[in-house]
Amino acid sequence: MSLFEVYTDGACANNQGEGLQPGGWAAVFVNGPALSGGESATTNNRMEMRAVIEALKNTPPNSQVKIYSDSAYVINCFKQNWIDKWEKNGWITSAKKPVENKDLWLEMRQLEKERHVEWIKVKGHSGNQWNEMADTLAVAAIPNHKKAYEKPTKKINLSLTEEEKDNLIKFLDHNQAKLNDALKNVLEKLRKSE
After folding, report:
1. Is 105 within a domain?
2. Does residue 129 surpass a pLDDT of 90?
3. What pLDDT does residue 153 have?
4. What pTM does this model have?
């Protein structure tokens, strides 16, 4: 039986925002492909679910699949048997309310029944390379996330003596492996001004 290990993640432009937001999802197969996509009006939970659905769609029926997710919403639904209770209760929660995201739960449930799925909760943003990759891809898949949600760039002018500039260039050169993109841009600008 084939075994697939997949890290999934979802992201939204503003998780605390009111109403629907642009969002992205990603599914990263260990030793396999990485998939991602986005929607213009969604929720973080729906993106977490979409990532799992797409992961399962890309595995054959009857295969063994390990889903790693930092979403308690998704993992607890299966590990704590919420979904079984919802099905028995006609998709009504214990609080007597309709189950949210029923359309995606139904799709995920069908895919899950056709496979041998193990649900594994991982801690988000804890340095796990596969989880971090899934997070990065999910954020990158948010439609227009850079244009609409990045803070505007504020330019400043800085006066340096020649000695200060030379020392700064030497320092940045020496630490180049540790520089983020913004500091690499500063170093490039300093070199051009020589």
Report:
1. yes
2. no
3. 54
4. 0.73
